[in-house]
Amino acid sequence: MGALGAAGSAPVLVVVLFAGVWVDRLPRRPILIAADLGRFGLLLTIPLAAWRGWLSMELLYIVAFLTGTLTVCFTVAWVAYLPALVQREELTGANSKISVTASVAQVGGPSAAGGMIALAGAPLAIFLDAISFLGSAWLIGRIRVEEPRSPERRGEQRIWREIGEGIGFVKRHPILRALTACTATTTLGGFMFVAVYILYMTDDLGLGPGGVGLVFGLGGVGALAGAAIAPAAARRLGVGPTIIWAQLLAGLGGLAIPLAMITPGIALPLVLFAEFFQWMMLLGPVVI
């Protein structure tokens, strides 16, 4: 589980700097469509391999890494593409709507996946996941907003210079430097946690695929709540204090997980509380 999680998350460290420079040189919409089509094709290999009896951990590692790479490119591209679709004063509202949409998907997605895996098996669930990327590519292809042209840049030396400029800018900017360090720490701890979290729920708590899906679905409910309360909290406390308090409370809420391990009688309620509360705290700063 740890190796598979690492294969999927490694592109965040390896690819993201190059993806940012590359996206800055090209139109974003074709990148988004290509990333969706690529993920559709990659994920489709898993149910096909399972059907033919060829499925192996090595294949899963490769698919996870390549899919993670395309996800990084997609994420960087849509963040850069959004300002071309809405006016500057509409960006906060647009980001909020995207976060709420993602939260709603997180509510229904894990629960539906858990039920589907329990009824028909994981390969079918992954097949439908692959189809969802095909639908995403079709929807993005229907966007008809013309993007502003990016300045033309060439040369490998220029790529490395731009990467260096970006890193240098973040290092010199105290707020961006702090946010980057915070995100890196949270991401590192999160991937370490997820690598054993599912095993804990299945082996120690005895949850099946449907139960695991419900736990993650409750996290989506928490994320939706966080997206709803974040703007009001930012207006009342200020953006900076809201981010700090959200991170602090998310960490405190996560203590319910180790507490669940030493109090098995109430382990499941504690896990459900931690899933809901942590996602509520963590998504709030994203909306802001």
Features:
single chain, 288 residues, mainly alpha, Growth Hormone, Chain: A, 2 domains, 12 helices, globular
Describe the protein in words.
The protein has twelve helices and no strands. It has 288 residues and is mostly helical. The protein has two domains: 1-172, Growth Hormone, Chain: A (Up-down Bundle), CATH 1.20.1250; 174-288, no CATH class. The two termini are 33 Å apart. The model has no long low-confidence stretch (mean pLDDT 81).
Topology:
Blueprint: H1 2-14, H2 16-25, H3 28-52, H4 57-85, H5 91-120, H6 122-141, H7 156-172, H8 174-204, H9 209-237, H10 239-254, H11 256-262, H12 267-287
How helix-rich are the residues, as a percent range?
over 70%
Tell me the Rg in angstroms: 20 Å
Whole-number total of structural domains:
2
**What is the chain-wise order of helices and strands?**
HHHHHHHHHHHH
What's the number of extended β-strand segments? 0
Question: Looking at CATH, which topology of the largest domain would you report?
Answer: Growth Hormone, Chain: A
Largest sheet, in brief, is: none
Beta-strand residue percentage? under 5%
* pLDDT averaged over residues: 81
How many DSSP H or I helices? 12
CATH architecture of the largest domain: Up-down Bundle
Structural class: mainly alpha
Low-confidence residue ranges: none
What is the general shape? globular
Write down the CATH class of the largest domain. Mainly Alpha
Q: Distance N terminus to C terminus?
A: 33 Å
